Structures are given as structure tokens and as C-alpha cells.
Amino acid sequence: MSDSKFLSLRDLFARTQRELTRLLARRVGPDHAPDIVQEAFLRVMHRNMTEEIADPPAYLRRTAVNLAMDFSRRRRLETKIFVADADAPDALSEEATAEQRLDADRRARLLAEAIEALPPKCREVFVLRMHEDVPQDEIAGRLGISRNMVDRHLRIAIQRCRSAVQ
Hints:
By secondary structure, the protein is mainly α. About 75% of the residues lie in helices and about 0% in strands. The protein is globular and about 50 Å long. The mean pLDDT is about 80.
């Protein structure tokens, strides 16, 4: 990275970090906002572009907001998969022990990592079906793949996610 690019990014960071952190704190909470801001800066910093960005603050903001949306989607998906019926034998009780809460957090983290590790098309199918409740036929049409391929991606994703959290 050239010195001028580094200095301009450092200046951009100094000017926008506080505002971006506040914006993202409203979207993802104050605990996660700084990490997402840092990830946005890293992505902008490592991006190799042949032409200059016309509006770097707007580009950075869009990158951060996109990362926040991805984070929120993952959280909703984790919640959807791990929210158990209150009557289920393995459901966490109101008085869940610290060990049970830690295990649930560990499993949620493992699930998020498993989803991130899926091949891109497989992950896209999984998120559309499990998170957005899009029917398989519609997923096939949106992605330009066959219904059988959608089913195959879902089987792979579910199997890998189950394996990861067990």
C-alpha cells in the first residue's frame, strides 16, 4: 500500500470512525459496532482498485452498513435455528446455568462459522430458505439453478451446520 493511500485512509478513519460506530450501534448494538467498523475499514484498505473511489466516506459507509446487514441476518438466522420450543426437553429454562448459556453461545458461534464456511451459492440458498423463508422454487428462479440443485445445496448446508454444532 502506498504511503499516500495509507495516509488518506488514516485520515478517513479519523474523520468517520465515531459517526460510523454510532450509526452501527443503533443497528447491531454497541458491543458489535466497533468490530464491524474495523472490518469495513479493513475491506476498504485491502481493496485493490484501478480507479479512485469518487466519494470515500460514502463508500466506507455503504461497506459498513452492508456488513451490519450481513451481521443482523446471521443473528436472526442463528436465533431462528436455535430458538427452541419452551416445552422441548433440551430448551434452556429461565434459570439456565452459566454453563448452559456458554454452551448455547458456543453453538451459535459454531453455527455462524459453519454458515460462513459454506460455498457461496450453498450459503445463499441456505440463507434465502432458512432466513428469508423463500420457497425452493422461487430460489431456483432467482438464482437460475434447478430445483434439484436448490435441494442439494440445502441438504449440504443443513448437514454441515448440524455437524458443526454437535
